[in-house]
Design brief:
mainly alpha; 5 helices; 75% helix; 0% strand
C-alpha cells in the first residue's frame, strides 16, 4: 500500500546520516572548546570532557563523510550507552524528565547509531 515510499530509501538514509552527524558535531563542539565549563556541570575532568567532545566530532564527521562510517557508528553507540548508564545510575535521571533532559534523547541516538552500524555500506 505504501510501497511507493521505498523509492526514497537512499534519500532517507542520507538524511538520517546528516541528522546524526549534525547532532554529534553540535554536542561535541562545546565539550572540545569549553571543557572546563562542561566538566563542572558533568562532574568529570576537563581532559575527559575534551576527549569525549573530540570523539563525538570525529564520529559525526565519519558518519557525515562516509569515512569509517561503521566504526563511527559503533563508537557513537558506545558513547550513547555510556550516557544512558551515567544518567540512570549516577545522576538518577528518568527516561522522561520535565526538569532536565531525560535519557530518551540518548536512547534514540543509540538506536540510530545501531541502525547505521548495521546498515552502512
Amino acid at each position: 500500500m505504501l510501497s511507493i515510499f521505498t523509492q526514497y530509501n537512499a534519500l532517507s538514509f542520507l538524511l538520517l546520516q546528516l541528522t546524526m552527524a549534525i547532532i554529534f558535531i553540535y554536542h561535541g563542539w562545546p565539550k572540545l572548546s569549553k571543557p572546563a565549563g562542561m566538566a563542572a556541570g558533568m562532574g568529570w575532568s576537563p581532559l575527559v570532557v575534551r576527549v569525549l567532545g573530540a570523539v563525538e566530532i570525529l564520529g559525526g564527521l565519519g558518519i557525515l563523510l562516509g569515512a569509517y562510517s561503521q566504526l563511527s557508528a559503533l563508537v557513537l553507540a558506545l558513547i550513547m550507552l555510556g550516557a544512558i548508564y551515567t544518567k540512570i545510575s549516577k545522576w538518577h535521571i528518568p527516561f522522561f524528565s520535565q526538569t532536565n533532559t531525560g535519557w530518551e534523547f540518548d536512547f534514540i541516538l543509540l538506536a540510530v547509531s545501531l541502525f547505521l552500524l548495521t546498515n552502512s555500506g
